[in-house]
ATP-binding cassette subfamily B protein
Amino acid sequence: SGHVRFEAVHFGYDPDREILKGVDLDIPAGATVAVVGPSGAGKSTLARLMYRFYDVTGGRITIDGQDIRDVTQSSLRGSIGIVPQDTVLFNDTIGYNIAYGREGTTPDEIAVAARGAAIAGFIQSLPNGFETRVGERGLKLSGGEKQRVAIARTLVKNPPILILDEATSALDSRTEADIQATLEAIEHGRTTIVIAHRLSTVVHADRIIVLEAGRVAEQGTHAQLLRKN
Ligand code: ADP
Ligand code: ADP
């Protein structure tokens, strides 16, 4: 499961200004698809529509053939994990930041769950190890560590569909490469939509979609796009 389709999707935040102008996407279950394109093209907007922060104004988005407007919010948000561009951590522990929103789950329980889950590798890869640092306060972390915690917060629900909205683009290139490597392992087996600024960070994607001014300008593999441009 996790087959995502956009069918002639239109959207505008304001009625007199359309941002997405008829977007068609077909993302097979388990594939990693990257969305690149200039700033303002509508990439983050695509992600927000999938998570239903907003509803499409025309067309539809389906998951496994079902219109996402026909799915309850809790079911939709159980199957999709989104790492937004600008995650803000609470001034609380790493454990709390990861457990946040998951009622009845203490940082200790999360630590135990994390150990068993597929995300263990990711959390363990916090410098000096997650388990010794679970009680550390989020605001003291470096940018890269904060972003690992933000990603872990999303991964802890083990979503079959993962959206990464420029999840590493604010980091220095070495930290970005470190986190990127862990992410690529985690993307395996789940439908992943990676929004990226630079083509070089999405070489591993099965397909790259170039969005320009609210339309799909072209798509193909990394090699195909390099040949054309
Ligand atoms: P990208 O992710 O490709 O940089 P966005 O999806 O963030 O593009 O933005 C697409 C367009 O929508 C931009 O012109 C942006 O200014 C506008 N926009 C984004 N968010 C909002 C919002 N909450 N309200 C109104 N306009 C918005
Ligand atoms: P959870 O996955 O714990 O249920 P939410 O669904 O509330 O969390 O939000 C997921 C992420 O999306 C959070 O990191 C939140 O900051 C971010 N977010 C919430 N509302 C918006 C919005 N309108 N636009 C973009 N990002 C948002």
The longest helix spans residues 173-187. The longest strand covers residues 4-11.
